[in-house]
Write a sequence for this structure.
């Protein structure tokens, strides 16, 4: 019986951390970045000997605004842009988390293992070029690459790459992103990436993290960073009957962002293992739509989400300086119904404002086909003779329904000369005149 207790105790100790032992009081290096542990702070990132808590974003547009809002860290997904971002971040006093993309594992697919070997020289070249940059904080090797499983061969190839990176850069930690249950599965099977700490990307499941961490305590009690968090994504949204996700207006997303920080992110700092958080997405990107996670327009206008994040960091609650769209109505109905329209007919869109515009620089109305493959290349229907809108106002528009059957969205965006914007859209489905009868 005593032997069994000893074995169990050893197993718990083996599972309780990650792979690397953190520095403790008096052992924090004066240069580089290390994970340290003190009784007063718990787990902490130490940057050049000073405690550093990440208050940041994933994405790197408008870094000067991030700094003005109180943020201190950006995450760069694309290694091709890393050099320029590092230089600009250093000028602004901002730290950079750098992704090193590798193929994710797919069940029973060993091609990913071969692809890790294929991309290794290119990734090591990135490390060699940037490892001594003063703005670099740490590396993320692979984004959610273990979420659909793994094999021993895949983890072996992963760890070989980790070792190669550490040989070239001993001054910056390496992390990777997980979901909580996949992390637990890896712990139980002893197939573990040799990384310094764990990163989590959480959206609709963010409220579950605190309870999940408690469940994981017998297996893992190491440090972590929340590297992506926000309001719900397209994969979590309510859908139309033709499976188009329904996007909330920017104003609603901003309210959800504040609520999630207050209710779920901020309390995580009571846990001595949390070393920082990064909101998603500080830039412009397509995720089901061009606006779902875009905190900025391509030209840099500021959304309610970006502004609200700054207010959260400052502990203030100022009103958004630009107009704010509450919702759209299509033929008098909102997003709680399926909008089925007949080809060639007229449809009316109305805008309801939480905060109406005082002065308007630009109003943009667009009809776009649904971007099923999320390639970001579903263009607005053409201008000229094919222009669908024949009446456009700040608070509404009338358009001719496209003649081609299929799924579409009507997009509305209002921008001000002061550099702010608000946006909303509604999905609709076009039936031919014959099918509509």
């Amino acid at each position: 019986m005593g032997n069994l207790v000893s074995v169990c105790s050893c197993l718990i100790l083996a599972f309780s951390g990650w792979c690397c032992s953190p520095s403790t009081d008096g052992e924090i290096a004066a240069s580089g970045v290390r994970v340290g542990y003190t009784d007063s702070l718990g787990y902490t990132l130490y940057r050049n000997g000073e405690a550093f808590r990440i208050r940041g974003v994933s994405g790197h547009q408008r870094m000067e605004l991030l700094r003005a809002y109180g943020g201190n860290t950006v995450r760069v997904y694309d290694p091709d842009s890393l050099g320029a971002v590092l230089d600009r971040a250093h000028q602004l006093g901002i730290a950079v988390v750098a992704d090193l993309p590798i193929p994710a594992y797919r069940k029973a697919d060993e091609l990913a293992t071969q692809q890790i070997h294929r991309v290794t020289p290119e990734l090591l070249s990135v490390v060699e070029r940037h490892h001594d940059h003063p703005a670099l904080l740490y590396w993320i090797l692979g984004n959610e690459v273990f979420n659909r499983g793994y094999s021993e061969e895949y983890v072996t190839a992963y760890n070989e790459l980790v070792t190669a990176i550490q040989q070239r850069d001993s001054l910056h930690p390496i992390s990777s992103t997980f979901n909580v249950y996949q992390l637990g599965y890896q712990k139980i099977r002893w197939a573990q990436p040799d990384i310094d700490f764990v990163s989590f990307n959480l959206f609709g499941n963010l409220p579950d993290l605190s309870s999940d961490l408690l469940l994981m305590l017998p297996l893992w009690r190491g440090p972590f960073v929340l590297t992506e968090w926000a309001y719900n994504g397209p994969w979590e949204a309510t859908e139309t009957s033709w499976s188009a996700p329904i996007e909330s207006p920017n104003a609603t997303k901003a309210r959800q962002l504040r609520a999630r920080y207050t209710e779920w992110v901020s309390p995580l700092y009571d846990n001595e293992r949390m070393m920082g958080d990064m909101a998603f997405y500080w830039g412009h990107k397509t995720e089901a739509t061009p606006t779902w996670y875009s905190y900025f327009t391509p030209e840099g206008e500021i959304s309610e989400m970006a502004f609200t994040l700054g207010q959260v960091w400052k502990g203030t609650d100022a009103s958004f300086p630009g107009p704010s769209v509450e919702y759209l109505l299509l033929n008098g109905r909102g997003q709680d119904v399926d909008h089925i329209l007949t080809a060639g007919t007229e449809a009316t869109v109305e805008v309801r404002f939480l905060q109406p515009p005082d002065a308007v620089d630009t109003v943009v109305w667009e009809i776009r086909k649904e971007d099923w493959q999320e390639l970001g290349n579903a263009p607005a229907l053409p201008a000229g003779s094919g222009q669908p809108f024949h009446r456009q106002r700040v608070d509404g528009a009338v358009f001719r329904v496209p003649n081609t059957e299929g799924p579409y969205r009507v997009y509305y965006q209002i921008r001000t000369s002061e550099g702010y914007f608000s946006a909303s859209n509604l999905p609709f489905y076009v039936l031919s005149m014959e099918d509509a009868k």
Observations:
- The first helix runs from residue 2 to 16.
- The chain has ten helices and 20 strands.
